[in-house]
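Risk register update: the risk that structure generation would not scale has been downgraded. Supporting records follow, first protein first.
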Amino acid sequence: MIPTMCLSAVPSRDPRPSPRRLVHRAVHRWLESISLWLAVLLLLFVHPLYAEAMELETEGTGAFHFVGADGQWQEPATLLTTDYRVTVSGLIADTVLRQRFANTGQQWREGVFVFPLPADASVYGLTMIAGERVIEGQIHTRQDATRQYEQARAEGRQAARVEQQRANLFTTYLANIPPGEAVTVELRYQQAVRYQSGQFELRLPTTLTPRYMPGQPLANRATSWQGGWATPTTEVPDADKISPFTVRPQEVGAGSHLAQVALTLNAGLPIAQVTSPSHRLLSTWEGDTVLVTPAQGALVMDRDLVVRWSPQRGQAPSAALFHERFDGEDYLLAMLVPGQAPRQSLPRELVFVIDTSGSMAGTSIRQAQASLLRGLDTLTAADRFNVIQFNSQTQALFPSAKPADAVNLARARRYVQALEANGGTEMAPALAAALVATHHGDLSQELVRQVVFITDGAVGNEQRLFAQISDQLGDSRLFTVGIGSAPNMHFMREAARYGRGSYTAINDLGALSEPLDQLFGKMESPVMTAIQSQWPAGTEAQAVLPQRPGDLFLGEPLIQVIRGQGAEGDVTASGRLADGSQWQQTLALSQAAPGRGLHRYWARQKIDSLLDESLSGQTGESTRAAVIELGLRHQLVTPYTSFVAVDKTPVRAPDEALATEQVPTLKPHGTTAGMLRYPQTATWSPLLLALGLLGLMGSAVAQLWQRRARG
């Protein structure tokens, strides 16, 4: 029997897909289409935002300053112009600085302006000029000055206040500027003229490099920005007060942030020439007096103005003495210039530290590289060296100092030329790496250990760094090289002082050789130590400042100021030269010429010495009281005293609103936007991350649908 095949028992295959599979395919195609359109939209939407963010970051992040409380873009309403009138008499420069705030808006304004002054400036006067009204400021404790100012601001009265944030950083507060009008704040300050190697120098800062604020945000402080772009941190608790917004010149109003400058040089001796590494100058001689102005007229406030003058050949001073009587007391300022000793070749261990943080981007990093390369050229076969770079991290070229042979020097030059500027300014680890010597193997000879620190000094925790230098210095000497058009010269000078070294500044690649040759010449020369001064009998030791003069390098003078000593008797200075011989010079006090501002110079030196007693910044109550007493007596702005000028008559009605505007500073000339370390929330990275996550989620959903369809 032949079996029969039952075809009906075999299931037939329908060529048409099932309804379920059709649904899966439709959903999958729909997701693919949506993903494609999302990708297109992502490209079209994100690219302009990214381009805008990049423009903000690379061209002028400071523009965030003009975003108001309502989140809307605001044009700057306060125009700022300044006027410097400087008179140099001997070793003291006296400056009248006028800051004119013009309100071009339709609303009453309060202007707040954070600005730099010379590192040793003594602010001793304040005048507010509003129309025909002239109000002289008074010195008060900082707390009392703040109270008076805030009360006047609330009551609609015009008021001005000036307070010190750092030795070279101040803030002007100006309340109730009427719409369409201008108010002028006139400051009077003095500074010491720097003299070295037969040349005088004066520096007028007009802007500042934004400072890096290390540390963690303070949990108990407001997270919103109250005045600057930074918030308080554990390392810099006043970061919001020293971080003014920095913008390009075209981001301020037309004619704003310009400075007129005029200098009158009465050096007390014939002047041969006047030069500047920062600007072209016009100089006019009227006997021994020289009138100096910038050749271009009004200056854009984006770099320091540096003026140098040299006496005629054979007229360089070997000594100078000035006398002033103030408030019933005598003050004397003495300068003694040791003769130049012959240079000696001393084997050295030379450590170069170069700042490669974001604030050095642009011209600054090229200046720093050129400075370091020139330093490498000074090394001899008897020397050892190393190169350390730092930004957010610290990195050394060698594990320890290496011989300065051709191979190591060639490697170092390649290393330096390849450096780029980026990241933060974590200076403390770099200082520790440079100051704490590490050697591998035995050194066959005793080396003079020197550290050259090349930076713009753009940090907010200077006091902690000074304490670190004092603690870790050991047998090293620290020399600082200020880089850029607006370096933090307070850091340069004080770091070198605590480091028993010297300092210089590079303003321009074209004028690099002279200051560096002077600095490296000092480093190669013997140092005069054990310096002492003997004043007439009966002189109080506490009245002589500085009480313990530091070591002197080639071309540096010994300068001391004394209170309570009349122009009678002699002063004798002595020291020990490198060969063991003694240097001594005597000056008759009766030869003193009339001087001005010596009492303020002495008071500033005394205040600095009091603040030096606590490098950690935690000043005791007795020190605070002593500083306040000196500030009030000598009419000086200090960390605890401020000037305030208050008009008696209200000009703004209580129902009229008052807007506060943080007047920005200009981005230092030659820098790039990479140095503007503004809050990261100003970038579009959160948006990009969110969109990226959205895309990943969409892709994941599509994959799941595809797998289920196959199952």
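Supporting record for the second protein:
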Amino acid sequence: MFAWWGQFVYRHRWAVLGVSAVMLAGSIVALFNGGTLKNSGGRNTESGRALALMQDQLPQNGAGSSFVLVFGSDAMAVGDPAFKQAMLTALQPLKADPRVKTVDTPFDLPAEQARAMTSTDGHHAFAQVSLKDDYPTARQYYAQLRAEVRSDRLQVLGTGNVAIGSDFDKYLASDLQRAEVVSLVIIVPLLLIVFATVVSMLLPLGVGGLAVVGGLAGVGVLAHFTDVSTYSTNIVTLIGLGVAIDYSLFIVNRFREELSGGSPPEQALIASMRTSGRAVTFSGITVAIGLSAMLFFQDSFLASMGFAGAIVVAIAVLYALTFLASLLAILGHRVNWARLPLPRRATGRGLWHGLAIRVMRHPVLVLVPVVALLLLMVLPFFQIRIANGDVGMLPPNAETRRGYDQLQTFPGQGQTFFSVVVHYASGGPLTSDRVGELYDLAQRIKRVPGVAGVESLVSYDGSLTRAEYQTLLTQPASAQPARVQAIVHGTTGSRIAVLSVVTKHGQESEAARSIVRSLRSMPPPAGSSMLVAAFSIDFTDFILARIPLAVAYVMVVTYLVLFLLTGSVVLPLKAVIMNILSIGASFGALVWIFQQGHLSSLLNFTAAPLDPSVPVLLFCIVFGLSMDYEVLLISRIQEEYRRTRDTTQAVADGLERSGRLITGAAAIMVAVFLAFGLADVVLIKSIGLGLAIAVALDATLVRALIVPAVMRLLGRANWWAPRRLARLHRRISMDEPLAA
């Protein structure tokens, strides 16, 4: 099939190139008409169901569209008239902005609320800015609102959910731009070293650029139909550049190799598609399999990132087999134009052949220390701690993070809140019996160890008794004090009542988890059900519960695909084990760096537990990319084995022919990933560095040392399969010679 495709592309090269141009035009149109990206999920968790009820019946709390401005001065206290005047003057443009609903300051609220908006040192105060639009819309124009607030007498820091979301957008965009520039600066010289000609160097860059544009366009289209994470653009660029350049590298190199062997351009292209084209297709399938494991995390932003990654990998393979193949057909021998004055590679057996032979002479002596080193790197992984990332994923100098840290000096800050939603099957909560039962529930919650208080319509005043609450809250609203009316309006709906549980423990600490377990084990009031909103805990548990199934899926399906490629039941097993070893080592490195904080000052981040999405993303991406190199290497080794029927010679020749390219491809991919390791957002930084470490280990220790040693020890068993499976493979596989 691939040989036929090579012949078809050569004979219709201009038409195929035209189709690629149409695809690019469509991608550009889609790119400028994409949907809005947003992080969402958790709707099917208990917290998500609780939030849905609150959004439905407490609309004033649903959008959560607001931000905070923290004002401060070392010289002036909040009580100074000059401080008040400077703060109100700075806020005046916001009050006149039609997008702003309200601006609350400590100077126009009751004394109790004013004290909560003044820092304990008396030199800082904050204003709460509520917006008319929902969170996704407000996040787009927050920067414009923030620019309206200026003061030459007070320091001003913006924070809060809209501000933090806007800051994440800003840093993600700058991270992406920086990574693209740094990648190009490093990739171009590396490609010139690998190919030694300018024309050959430009081809992988062209495919990489087209793949990224197509991937971003695909993400934009996907955003019209489902929620797509704001991180998806970074993941698309990171994966798209890496795999597209890798695939192009192997196809272009094989084409040049066939030309140098005396084949005419048509035969060279046919051979390239039959060998490297087939290997690239299988490689793309294995990468997509790894990424598709994220679909097990439906109802989280990980699912959309899996879709985004699979889209860009598919587009990279498509452009490699169409755009690149048609250009090679058009260029022919001109692919070697503009040669640089670099030393030419010597003919005959070289470094990689010699390395493979030396490794296979003493396989055990090589295998034991290398595996021991990788296992040593795995050890920190057993100390891993998982917790949801928050504003701490922004760099320490980000304004919203500094504002958030400053906000912790205010009374009542630094606390964790869990919402308890009591949902009645029929009727509302404001009957005498139900008010009494809610009072009893609040008293039980207060007795839970670690609970600092309960804020609700039945606990706002500790001097009131159960009977007094019943009398007060069952009166007509017009007969209730204004404060009570506001509390009832904010905490009750037609069929729900909301109690806010306060604790000083961190939101994912073991003490907080114990509180949530206690709350969820309490019997609800008669005629009702009870939901506890603990979003961070539920999201982490949601991810951890699905990891085993995702891991098993990736390993089983990858094993089957590699069996289809090789016809062996041994080589896929070896590949899976080697991948787990290299992934474990990279996980250990991440824990050592980001959780234990050994490089925090150098890399400008604050040590913290790993976000639950990081292990998932790393496993899915690294497993796919590791299989990428496995496919490309084993394909070439198997081609040599079919020719010689000598495993030792096949490994040596296969490594000689593909080892240099795998090293070059890995160096390029590591450069791309390290460029993302320079990101300011810790999530992107950790993924970039984790991928760089994993690929570096995989292309050096695993492919260059462990693979030859293990294949030497296995001998002919490498290619073994039970007779029935061997017959099945011959029937269903596209049995063509393979190569990288």
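The radius of gyration is 31 Å. On this basis the risk owner (M.S.) recommends closing the item.
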